[in-house]
Design a protein that fits this description.
Number of domains: 1
CATH topology: Rossmann fold
Order of helices and strands: EHEHEHEHEHEHHHE
Distance between the termini: 49 Å
Number of strands: 7
CATH class: Alpha Beta
Number of helices: 8
Radius of gyration: 17 Å
CATH superfamily: NAD(P)-binding Rossmann-like Domain
Bound molecules: nicotinamide-adenine-dinucleotide
């Protein structure tokens, strides 16, 4: 008997990075997992890695109908829903705010913020039916501090943390927990594609714990624990997993 036997989980952004690591870890603990992503080729690879316990689907989290279809598919295939990990996200284009295109701002909001709302809204009635459940949203350390050049990203990640707190307040009565995770520098396609090598080295150098970026598995471990009954009194909270990068100002030379 493992923590997630008989449980059904949805993971968005599951084609790679944090989402793929989380989906594999949930399945390893007994869950049936709907792995969802806009990249249908790579999300099928995630399902193939997992095997029988996984079903892959394409979703565009920026689209309400697509999110609703994703949740309905999970309930149809698994007969229930216990956990949704709203994890899909994009960094968006880098530019200072006066030069930010309106299109980029809207796209980042649509995916990073509206996507979390849509997934949550679609999942809530099913979690209520199941007698409770867990919603985990991926924010960022950029949901707690600013970062030059990515104001849409920072704005959406701050919003995810506030949204998460409110859902926790509204649905605690239904035994539904809602938490967010705030990763720091994680070695995924997002960071590899969004920063130059020297910038990544600079970020790693700012991490007190080992001067390194994290593996996606190190975030997945937190996510799966938060979704488990071990975290039965944890809700409304955000959880940094950042090697201490925003703990404060290091005076180390
Ligand atoms: N990597 C980091 O350092 C870091 C730090 C803090 C927060 N995060 C957050 O972690 C989450 C996962 O990112 P990652 O680092 O694993 O990067 P990633 O690029 O590997 O994963 C993001 C996934 O989201 C998917 N996606 C993008 N737009 C989508 C859409 N419209 N609908 C459905 N899926 C879509 C992508 O195809 C991709 O598979 C994101 O929300 C990101 O903001 C990452």
């Amino acid at each position: 008997m493992t923590s997630f036997d008989q449980k059904a989980v949805i993971v968005t952004g599951a084609a790679g990075g944090i989402g793929r690591a989380a989906a594999i870890t949930f399945a390893g603990q007994g869950a049936k997992v709907l792995v969802a992503d806009i990249d249908k080729t790579r999300v099928r690879e995630t399902a193939a890695i997992i095997g029988d316990k996984a079903i892959a689907t394409q979703v565009d989290v920026a689209d309400w109908q697509s999110c609703r279809d994703m949740v309905e598919l999970a309930v149809e295939k698994f007969g229930r829903l216990d956990v949704i990990f709203n994890n899909a996200g994009i960094a968006g284009d880098r530019a200072y705010t006066a030069e930010q295109s309106l299109q980029n701002w809207q796209r980042v909001v649509d995916i990073n913020l509206n996507g979390v709302f849509y997934g949550t809204r679609a999942a809530l009635p099913h979690l209520q039916n199941a007698g409770g459940g867990v919603i985990i949203n991926t924010a960022s350390v950029d949901g707690l501090i600013g970062m030059g050049g990515i104001s849409p990203y920072v704005a959406t990640k701050h919003a995810v943390i506030g949204f998460t707190k409110t859902v926790a307040l509204e649905y605690g009565k239904d035994n539904i927990r809602c938490v967010s995770v705030a990763p720091g520098y994680i070695k995924t396609d997002m960071t590899a594609g969004g920063f130059a090598r020297e910038e990544l080295d600079g970020l790693a150098n700012m991490v007190p714990l080992g001067k390194r970026g994290a593996e996606p598995q190190e975030v997945a471990n937190l996510v799966v624990w938060l979704a488990s009954d071990q975290a039965s009194y944890v809700t409304g909270s955000f959880h940094q997993v950042d090697g201490g990068i925003i703990a404060g100002v290091s005076m180390e030379q």
